[in-house]
Every structure is written in structure tokens, then in C-alpha cells.
Specification:
Length: 451
């Protein structure tokens, strides 16, 4: 029987001096099976690009996967901050995994569902690349997002990354820009996966008596009972200072709330939860939700410590939201939970194939994070190069508005001068050809840089 390990792949290695070639049409140097490569590769050295040979050609020169040591991934992140100004993170167009994560995918048979352990570093690189492009100097600290980290969606989005220190208002603006830029059809699909994931996890969680014995909330729950929490029970899961913000009549009629009302309430609760700074109970709640999500696959028992940092941002809100949507149709929350996190959460449920392009990842429009927002002054507006690099082609900035890959530049006939109004992808590419000298200069400058 054909195994995924039998698939033909092409590989090519990159170091600091050749990273600039990554999106300039570099193809595979060697061909072999995926299984043979995994057996022979130590993943302790340079960054390695992997192409699925049965798909190569359908996506230009774009590799399916980038992998390597931790230091190689760090170099990749530093390079992308400099070189991909205005394009968006590599993780939106390619999978990025450390060698250890990649090997772990194939340790079980059949391949396991992508779990929190593999998800968190991918989100870390993605969020770090996005946020590092917009002005502030980079520093190794978590982004201050207390005003917007009030849903599981944003908790996933901001998980474990190195990002610049940004003003809180700027974070809010970008998050709202991301929320407003996605596709309804994609929400429907992804939200459905999230609902299925959380519903199954809740059922498993509350069937296990041993899981509840170490938790001390405002009142004791009997986790041994094979039942789910009711909406009124959830009043006692969150800290008392927060629950007292709402009158008793509110809690009594909680189950009657619509989706918009519920999420509006969560928006109000979130900042209060941040201000309580109840580290002990917050840790307990993070552990609870980590177990909840890790139990989506009964075979995964060792994800707790790895999941805790990712889910530490108001996990009780994620639990609450999960309970609310468990019995609802996927479309119920679409109008109020349009965010990047839903797409990222889909990886917790989808069967993971590292050689499949990340179709559930962020769209190009989302990666812009409101760069063209009218409320940005020219002083704060990100600076763009005249020419950007994407998928092995030279393209102009206008290509950022396209949602699909474009044709190779050599197939395009130059139709208009550089001063003409550009409308079609072909005209965009023709215009970009005239800026080739600038591209070459940028490449030379990058190769000389020391990151």
C-alpha cells in the first residue's frame, strides 16, 4: 500500500548567504523519497526547502515546506523581516517547521492530527513576521494585547512569539483590520472545525474524574459526572471579581443570549480578567483548557506543558465560547468572530500533510494587517520597496491585492509603459520587469548584510 513516506520530493539547502535566492526561482537540487530523506537528514544544520515533485510546477517555484534547526529557522525569520517588506509572512505561503517537529509527525502511524505542540511554533513564526514589519524596533517580549486578547481566536494568534513593542491602540487597530478582511465561506468551514474540536474535547474532559481534582474555583464541580457544564455553571468558572460585574438576572438568562450579545459580553470581561492578575487561578484555567484541547486526540497525553504558554491568554473565555457553540450551527458566530485564529485553529482538527500547501493559512489580504488603512498618517505608514518578491517572480506592490499566484514573468508581454495605470496581473508583471535593476541591487545588498 502506498505510504506518504513513499512520495517523491526534491530538496535544496540554503544558508545565510543564499537565503535571498529562496524566492528567486531556486529549484530542487536532489530528488528522493520523503521516507529516505527523513532517515538520512539530521536537521541540525542549514535551512532546507522541500518540494513535493507531484505538485511542483503548479505553484511556480514555491517550496511546500521549509525546515531546519532552530538557528536556521531564526535566520529565516530575521531574513524575512528585512526582505519581504509588505508581502506577509512566509508561513502564509509555505509551511515552516523545525526538524524535530517534522520528524514527530511521522513517529506514529497513521500520521497524527496536527497537535498543539506543532501548532504553537508555526503561529509564533507567523505572528512574529507579521508584527515585526510595522515600525517599532524588535525586542524579545510578548506583545501587550490585554484589550483585545479576549477570545480563543486571538489567544492562538498571539501565542509564543518574539515581536516588537507596540502601542495598545495600534494592536487593536491591526486586530480589527484582520477581523474585517476574511472570507465568509472560509469562516464557515473553519468555525465548523473549531466547533467539532471543542465539542469533542469537552465531552472527553468531563468524563474523566481525575482531571477535575486539582482545580479550585469559586465552587466545586463534580467532574466525574458524565455531563457538560451548563451556561449557568460557567458563571463560577471565571474569577469572582468578574462574575460580580453582572447581576444575577444576567446569569439566569445567559442561555438565551444570541451570539452577538455573548461575544460583546466577552469583550467587556476580557480586560477585567487581565487586570485581576490572579496568577494561580489563571494557571489552573490555562491547564484546564490545555487538557481540553489536547484531548481532541485521545492518543496525545504529553501536550499539556507545551500548550500552557499558548493558551494562557484568558483560556476560560475559550472554554466558555466552546461550550456555547458546541450545539450551534457553524454560521452562528461568523459575524462576530472573524479572525486569523479560526484558520490557525483548523490545524488542530485537520489531518496534517507537510507537503500540502497551507490552504487553511492566512490570505494575502489578511497579512497586510491594515497597512493601507486611511487612519494611518504618512509618518506611520510602512515603507514599501518599489518591487516585491513573491513565488519566484518579480512583482510590484499592487500584486499584494491579488489572492492568487500570477503567471511567470517570462510569459508576459509588455503592454504598457511604467507610467501607465496597472490593472491586470500581466500588466503588473510587465511593469515589474522594468525594475529588475533594483531587484538585483536589493539581492546584492541582502547578501552582504549580517542580520
Amino acid at each position: 500500500m502506498f505510504s506518504m513516506l513513499d512520495r517523491k520530493i526534491g530538496i535544496r539547502q540554503f544558508d545565510r548567504s543564499t537565503l535571498a535566492d529562496l524566492l528567486q526561482g531556486s529549484g530542487p537540487e536532489r530528488a528522493m523519497t520523503l521516507g529516505r530523506w527523513l532517515e538520512s537528514e539530521s536537521f541540525a544544520g542549514n535551512l532546507t526547502a522541500v518540494w513535493s515533485l507531484d505538485q511542483w510546477g503548479n505553484h511556480g517555484f514555491l517550496p511546500n515546506l521549509l525546515t531546519g534547526s532552530d538557528s536556521a529557522i531564526t535566520d529565516l525569520l530575521a531574513w524575512s523581516k528585512v526582505y519581504l517588506q509588505g508581502i506577509g509572512p512566509l508561513t502564509g505561503i509555505m509551511r515552516v517547521m523545525t526538524g524535530i517537529e517534522l520528524q514527530r509527525v511521522f513517529e506514529s502511524h497513521p500520521p497524527i492530527d496536527l497537535c498543539v505542540e506543532s501548532l504553537a511554533p508555526i503561529i509564533a513564526i507567523c505572528a512574529g513576521e507579521v508584527l515585526a514589519r510595522y515600525g517599532a524596533s524588535a525586542s524579545e517580549q510578548l506583545l501587550a494585547t490585554s484589550t483585545v486578547s479576549n477570545t480563543l481566536s486571538f489567544s492562538l494568534f498571539r501565542a509564543q512569539f518574539v515581536a516588537p513593542a507596540l502601542e495598545r491602540d495600534e494592536v487593536v487597530r491591526r486586530w480589527r483590520a484582520v477581523q474585517s478582511g476574511s472570507l465568509d465561506q472560509e469562516y464557515d468551514r473553519i468555525t465548523g472545525l473549531v466547533i467539532e474540536m471543542t465539542d469533542n474535547a469537552i465531552r472527553l474532559l468531563f468524563q474523566r474524574d481525575r482531571w477535575g481534582k486539582s482545580y479550585h474555583y469559586n465552587r466545586t464541580f463534580d467532574f466525574g459526572e458524565a455531563r457538560s457544564l451548563s451556561m449557568s455553571d460557567l458563571r463560577h468558572v471565571i474569577p469572582a471579581p468578574v462574575s460580580r460585574l453582572f447581576p444575577d438576572v444576567f446569569w439566569e438568562h445567559l442561555e438565551e443570549l444570541g451570539a452577538e450579545q455573548l461575544v460583546d459580553m466577552l469583550d467587556k470581561i476580557g480586560p477585567v480578567l487581565e487586570r485581576t492578575r490572579d496568577d494561580t487561578s489563571a494557571s489552573d484555567r490555562a491547564e484546564l483548557l490545555a487538557k481540553l484541547i489536547s484531548r481532541t486526540n485521545p492518543e496525545i497525553d504529553n501536550q499539556l506543558e507545551l500548550a500552557r504558554p499558548m493558551l494562557a491568554s484568558l483560556p476560560e473565555i475559550g472554554l466558555w465560547l466552546a461550550k456555547y457553540v458546541a450545539d450551534q450551527s457553524p454560521g452562528k458566530l461568523l459575524s462576530v468572530n472573524k479572525g486569523v485564529g479560526w484558520k490557525l485553529a483548523a490545524r488542530l482538527s485537520n489531518r496534517f500533510d507537510p507537503l500540502t500547501l497551507p490552504s487553511a493559512d492566512l490570505t494575502w489580504q489578511e497579512l497586510q494587517l491594515g497597512a493601507s488603512s486611511a487612519d494611518m498618517s504618512e509618518r506611520k505608514r510602512p515603507s514599501y520597496r518599489a518591487v516585491e518578491i513573491f513565488s519566484g517572480h518579480t512583482v510590484s506592490r499592487q500584486t499584494a491585492h491579488l489572492s492568487t499566484l500570477v503567471e511567470p514573468a517570462e510569459k508576459v508581454t509588455r503592454r504598457r509603459s511604467s507610467r501607465s495605470k496597472i490593472q491586470s496581473p500581466q500588466e503588473i508583471l510587465a511593469h515589474a520587469e522594468q525594475n529588475l535593476e533594483e531587484v538585483l541591487y536589493t539581492l546584492q545588498k541582502l547578501r552582504r548584510s549580517k542580520y
